[in-house]
What we know:
The protein has 345 residues and is an alpha/beta fold. The protein folds into three domains: 13-69, no CATH class; 79-247 and 306-345, no CATH class; 249-303, no CATH class. 49% of the residues lie in helices and 7% in strands. Strands 1-5-3-4-2 form a five-stranded mixed β-sheet, sandwiched between helices. A hairpin with a 2-residue loop joins strand 3 and strand 4 (179-184). It is elongated, with a radius of gyration of 22 Å.
Amino acid sequence: MGVIKIVTNSIDISTLYDRLNKLGLSPDFVRQNGLPEWWTEECETLPDASITVATYLAQRFNLEFKSLIDPNFEPVFQQSNQTRYKTQNTDVSKQLNLASFLALRIAELVVYAYPQEYQTIEGITADKIRTYILNQNQTVSLRSLLSFCQAHGIPVVHFANFPKTVKKFYGMVTRCATNPVVVLSLRDPSPSRLAFILAHELGHIALKHLEKQETISDEEIKTHDLQDAQESEANEFAAELILGEPDKIYYFPRYMKAEVLANRANEKAILDQVDPGAIAWNYSWYEKKHFPIARKAAKILEKGANAPMLINEQLNQQLNWERLSDDNQEYLTLSLKLDETITGG
Length: 345
């Protein structure tokens, strides 16, 4: 931990927690995620407790230290990137602020410990990336997409450790230092569903939607989004990358059981070199009422899968944890739900 600066007009710990709560960070969330493991409520009785808490929060959550402890300021996040929120609702954009700031801090820590140099994919078509992946894999799946990203120096992280009341996003892509970073946040065990979100975010990079020092945050990814041109282009990119065609639709009977859909998806997967889970989800792309059936079929096809764990376990093996301070190791391990004995934290 760095040197603590003594501030003569700093606020007390109770006032600090009240200010953080108004920002959307409840006392419980702060204690569980913003403070080190050794911190106890007894520590909050110490004279400099508010200074210590503010120091850790400034480091873990990227909050401005002075804004936390100076009563003349409102708590604010340090902002290095401009975020574009992909949503039709301006009120939702404001609600996504907190989740985006917390995710950006995770992205910064990941890049700091990520040794792989970025190999640009800007301007590369979905078809070329698909061909590249299929030369080494049977299908374009979550696992093969993660391997592609690793080979090109694009870290992918699953982060969904937010306060309960905070509006969350499906996926985000940002630039931190020299590397673009993809942050997936949707809590879904299905590898094929998260693969589409990852492919969508890669589309933003390849299609040159992402400017320097910019973040694109997708509140929700709708496969038939016609209101936002860039979202539509990223969807077509993802569909072509995973299914082989930008407007691919697998035609099945209007009503069918999940077990039948799973079997049909397996059959077509072999012929088309497409992940069977992706085919199952395709059944629900243009018919919302088919979502429960697609969900059940994907669960049959991907029995026991845990996509968030797969993403973060692969990332864990790629990071140079020694580049991070002890506290940053602890926070990243906690946030990504990794086993501390694996990370060495």
